[in-house]
Amino acid sequence: MEVTFFGHSSFLVNISGINILFDPFISPNDQAKSIDISTIEADYILVTHGHEDHVADVVSIAKRTGAMVISNFEVVSWFQKQGLENVHPMNHGGSKVFDFGKVKYVNAIHSSTMPDGSAGGNPGGFVVQTDDKTFYNAGDTALTYDMKLIGEAFTIDFAFLPIGDNFTMDIHDAIKAADFVGTDKFIGMHYDTFPYIKIEASEAKKAALEAGKELIMLNIGEKITL
Q1: Mean pLDDT within 44-67
Q2: What's the first-to-final CA gap in the chain, in angstroms?
């Protein structure tokens, strides 16, 4: 399983040749100017919620690649109004099998409003089960005890967790979240993009190490195999 980081909370996960793109906010991100979105290939685009910093490039990438957009009902309905036809709506607690694996849409504690002010439904995260690994993308969220249910129901190999504080969990709550879902390995996201969420990387890594966790903080454009 190959993971590529495009900045903020945007990741491309290649699962046996199938490309799953999460929360593409790339072209408006000054830190991701090195990324040419016209080169990104996606078969699916999974969107955790409706905020601009998670949906900015969905329409352009989906129209070019024909990727299926998967999100909650309200977010998907909004994208249909933007001209997207290849979509799949979900809601909390629901799951669906796709050709790369099974996706479950799970709780997140945050807010969700579309860029034009339309309602974005309730924010969420995804648990993705594949033949290779099972992982959790928390989306933007506070620490929640519901994460323990994920750990009870799934064997999570790694997680994508926000660590930027202010709008989401900080590193300390992310470490607890990793405990709750039952993994010692997590990829940090939603940090450093804006002044509100600037963090000290060395302090975050130290906190994770002291807790017995492996915190992966990728450079934009970096690719790793998990």
Answers
A1: 98
A2: 5
**Cα–Cα nearest to 203, from 182, 175, 223, 224:** 175
Distance between CA atoms of residues 108 and 13, nearest Å: 21
Binning the chain into helix, strand and coil, the percentages to the nearest 5 are 25, 30, 45
Tell me the CATH number of domain 2-225, given options 3.40.309.10, 3.60.15.10, 3.30.750.24, 3.40.50.300. 3.60.15.10
Q: What's the predicted TM-score (pTM) here?
A: 0.98
Distance CA 108, CA 7 (A): 21
Question: What single letter denotes the amino acid at residue 216?
Answer: I
Contact by Cβ (8 Å): 195, 164: no
Q: What is the pLDDT of residues 143-161, one digit of tens each?
A: 999 999 999 999 999 999 9
At 224, the pLDDT band (50, 70, 90 cuts) reads: very high
The token pair that represents 217 in the structure block: 């903080």
Q: In the numeric block, which tokens belong to residue 18?
A: 């199938």
Q: Which two tokens stand for residue 139?
A: 């989306």
- Say how far apart CA 192 and CA 135 lie, in whole Å: 23
Residues β-bridged to residue 113: 119
